[in-house]
Amino acid sequence: MNRDTDVLVLGGAGVDIIVPVPELPLPYADSYMIDRGIRTRAGQTGDFITLGLDALGLRVHHLDMLGDDPEGDLVRALHKERGIPFTTVAQPAGTKRAVNLVGPDGRRLSLYDTSRSRPDDRFPEDTVRPLAEASRHVHVTITQPCADTLPLLRESGATISTDLHDWDGRNPYHETFAHAADVVFLSTAALPDPERAMRRIADRGRAEVVVATAGAKGAYLLTDDELTHIPAAAPPAPVIDSNGAGDAFAAAFLFGWLNRETPRRCARYGTTAGAHACTVPATETRAISRPELLAVVPD
């Protein structure tokens, strides 16, 4: 079977409305004047993973549900501009969208519009199966309705990764993804005991590698029952926005993993790409390139 695609990215396409705010948390007020402007741009987790993989030279294809609306047009235009194959399934509820409040220190608060999906949404099997069977690997976002595709993806023979983002270690919705993936990413942000959560994923699922990102503290890597701390990389410029850092980490890690690098080296790729992402304004979608990554973490 020919697997002409390196990575199929499933889900996570949408738009963000970027609002620079003077501080976070934002004190209550009747109104705020936003001098730096409020902007809408295409790019949510699946889009950022896709762009990151493409910038690193991997052959990538993106699949998601998208509305016939201006927001959907922005997402389609982003993929067309980068020359990235993008398969869409009609979403009558509209394209996913969120509002990101971004503070001066680069931290963000995201408000997600959950009305843009329905419980009975499904990806057609005759759309997913041939794309998965043509791919070496599938990265599955946790957006609806990706969970229902997991058995089919496993049948395809492709390896699977997922990102649980700010999972609290208890929500059962995330466990479906965690237990089906070979590589699991998550954030330590909402975990009272990150190591316990990571080991629970490894023990109950099929993950070869579990990686927990910890922002300025770097990341934690669990593989072969050994937990390793990976220090944060130094940003190449001032930090202005943390949005997309986790997606950049995952894309760079997968770049290394698919090229059979060691897990530790993959994690170094991840911290380097994540640090780079923190220097890119929220209104832009600019991923680290392969030459830039290898200049910091040379072969």
What's a quick, concise take on this entry?
This protein is an alpha/beta fold and 299 residues long. Helices cover 32% and strands 24% of the residues.
How does the SSE layout of this entry go?
Elements: E1 5-10, E2 14-20, E3 39-42, H1 45-55, E4 60-66, H2 70-82, E5 86-90, E6 96-102, E7 108-112, H3 125-133, E8 135-140, H4 150-156, E9 159-163, H5 172-180, E10 183-187, H6 194-204, E11 209-213, E12 219-223, E13 226-230, H7 245-258, H8 263-277, H9 290-296
Parallel strand pairs: 1-4, 1-8, 2-6, 4-5, 8-9, 9-10, 10-11
Antiparallel strand pairs: 2-3, 6-7, 11-12, 12-13
Helix pairs in contact: 1-7, 7-8
Fold and architecture overview:
The chain has 299 residues and is of the alpha/beta class. Helices cover 32% and strands 24% of the residues. The protein is built from nine helices and 13 strands. The strands form two sheets. Strands 5-4-1-8-9-10-11-12-13 form a nine-stranded mixed sheet, with helices on both faces. Strands 3-2-6-7 form a four-stranded mixed sheet. β4, α2 and β5 form a beta-alpha-beta unit. α1 crosses α7 and α7 packs antiparallel against α8. The model has no long low-confidence stretch (mean pLDDT 95).
